[in-house]
Structure formats: C-alpha cells, structure tokens
Amino acid sequence: MAAGLALTTSLVACSSSSKDAGSGATSGNAKQIAAALQKETTITFWTWGTPMKDVAAAFEKKYPKITVKVVNAGTGNDQYKKLQNAIKAGSGAPDIAQVEYFALPQFALSKSLVDLKTLGMGSLSTKFTKSTWGSVSLAGGVYGLPQDSGPMVMYYNKAVFDKYGLTVPTTWAEYAATAAKLHAADATKFITSDAGDAGFTTSMIWQAGGKPFTTKGTDVTINLQDAGAKKWTSTWNPLVAKGLVSPIIGWSDEWYKALGDGTLATLLSGAWMPGNFESGIKESAGQWRAAPMPTYEAGKAATAENGGSSDAILKQSKNPLVAAAFLEYMNAGEGTQVSIDAGGFPSTVADLESPKFLDLKSDYFGGQQINQVLVQASKDVVPGWSYLPFQVYSNSIYGDTVGQSYAGKSDLNKGLVAWQKASADYGNQQGFTVTTK
User: Fold this and answer.
1) What is the pLDDT of residues 403-424, one digit of tens each?
2) Taking the CB of the first residue and of the last residue of the chain, which one, N or C, has fewer CB atoms within 10 A?
3) Do residues 150 and 271 make contact, with C-beta atoms less than 8 angstroms apart?
4) Residue of 288, 253, 291, 264 whose CA lies nearest to 186
5) Residues 246 and 194 reside in one and the same domain
6) 167 located within any domain
7) Number of H helices, E strands in the chain
8) Which of 48, 47, 46, 51 is nearest to 343 (CA)?
9) Which CATH number is 80's domain given?
C-alpha cells in the first residue's frame, strides 16, 4: 500500500451542492436529488462484490437516465492501491468505492472521502446494526454506508462431529478439548486451520474484549498485549504449539478441499460465509451447521465482526447527488434485497428482522434456519472496537511478525509485540504520534 494517507484533524466537508435526499436527508435536498436523477448521468462504482452488478441494474431500471458503471478494480488491497494512486494524482478515482471496514479509517481520515453527514445521511444510523454503523463513524463524521456485515459464528461439520462423538463446544476451553480429542482420534483431522491472518487475529482479540487500537486526532495508541489479546493467545497458543490447528492457508485450493472432505471440522468466520460454502464446497452440502462462537465465560454470548464492507463517496466525485442516491438505494433501500437474494448478509436491521429472512431453511446446512444464528450473532458483537488509521499497511506486515510465530509454532505474544512495534514505527513515519504499551 502506497504511503501518504496522513491524517488531518480538520476534515474538509463537500460543498452544499453535494447533499443527499432519500430517507436520510432534508426535503430541500430531496428536491435536488430528484432533479439530478432526471438528468443523463454516469457514475462509476469500484467494487468486487458480485451482487453489485444486479443492484446497479435495478437502480438503472428505476432511474433510466442514470448509468452505473460497475468496475472490478481488484479485490481489497489491489483496489486500495489503485484508489490511493488516483487520490494522490488528483484524478481517476470513482464516484463510489467499496471499502472494507478495517480500511475505511485510512481513507476517511486523509480527507479522501465525503463525510456523509454533509449529505444528510447521519439520520440513517437507526437503519443499521450498531457494530456496522460504529465502523463507518469516524472522528465525528460518517464516511460510508454499511454494505454487509460479518458477525462471527462457528460453522461445524456435523458429520465429522457425529463420527468422532464430539459435542459442539460452547466455551473456548471446550473447543480446545474438542481439538485435542479429534486429532487424537485421527491425526489427519483438525479442529480448524490457521496459518496466521491479520483479520482473523484482530477479530479474535475483539471477541475476547480487547481494544488494542485507539485514535484521538493524530495521537494513536497500540497495545497488542492488553487483556483481550492475552486472553486470546492463552487459548490459541497451545493449539498452534501442539499442531492442533492445521497450517493450511485460507482460501487456497487445499483449504477448500479440506473443508469439503472433513479434514477441517470447524470454521470460525463471518456471516457472509454461507454463500462461499454453497458455491465452493458443494461436496459437503447437508453436512455443515452454524453455532454461536465459543466464549470465554459460559453463558455469556460475545462475538466480533470479521470482514464486511462499506461503500464510500470519493471527494473527487463530480456527481455526488446521484452517487448519494445510489449509495442509499444500495445500502438502505430496495437494493438490500437484491444483495440478500444473491447471498449477501445484510447490515440493515429491518432485513435482519424480516420473518422471511429469519425463517429461511437452508438445504446446504441440513435444513437449519441458519439466519437465526447469524442474526443473533449480529446482536452479540462486543462494542467499542476501532481499527488503526493505517490498518491497511499494518495488515500487510503481519506475515513478517505474527506470521513468523505461526511458522515456528512459538509464542504468538512475541509476534504481536513485533507487529505492534513495526506498526508504530510506520505510524510515526507518517506523521502520527504513536504510543505503545
């Protein structure tokens, strides 16, 4: 990721002509939006989300004078690099970009994105879950609308559990015991895989109650040895050291095969994962189920977000009124159902509470009403989490620090300390004042 996304404490708002109407704006702005939608206009949307082409088509059908050019500029970091280059050049950025929650601060706090409060969208907060709205609310502004969410659950292979007489764990102590029992019964089987992944690590620390990153203006504090981090490593260290989690790299062909043939008995992941099961692991259809994440304290539900994206309007947009209309349609209007129909997991409260959504029985998950588990998870996300304003870069060096602990099956705390130092050094180089604990 190219450097240069330095934070400024005075975020520049867009002009008054950039105000949105829709359900979240004033009536005066609604008139401006309505007028803009009657003019021949093309907006560009950078996204890797497959359902977004269908959302754009539905929007164009409703507003025939508007063209939404959907461009896949790369997934995640590949897109962010292109986006940063366009920002640095002062031209070439899209009107709207999909930005994952962990990456949003890096763009928002560098004056690259429009504060959606200036578009009248601040009142949309009640439409979204608290955790996703919290992820787009930064430094007093709102810099994206939640597109989807990823509250974590535990997916488990019921056929494997039944074969080896395993009980679905509800606590991390039970999870560790299950891991040992399974691997002792069959050395080719593992409770899960983890070769070291920044997003997984931060989510697990989040679930454990950790709050390692805080930002106030240009002052940043990093503490990857706080109580939550230590709670997670106390559980995960033994699993890694004893070889009870497989070192298979996530999203590789080997990983898909291992999930399909029963090599991996569980997967700790976000609520967006079922669509990937259905499309990429067809051979184990009917075997998988979803359960709440194991917890550190029995009977006390707690989880974290893992993945998920927002959609943001770039300051470079020359059509902010139309962009705002599409943004709201896509994430807080009729477009949400289009995404759900394509397998997306919503962040909108109304959709999550819909009987149609909650009562859906999944054939892939053995007829389980899986959405009831996923929706409950969205309510159990531990509040108060925040990412670094340079999280994209920080994640890029994870493999050189914590990743080395995984490779050596050694203390993950040492890797976390190394990651903390390297992240702090970078932040200080970029003009932040970073304190470590």
Assistant:
1) 999 999 999 999 999 999 999 9
2) C
3) yes
4) 264
5) yes
6) yes
7) 19, 13
8) 51
9) 3.40.190.10
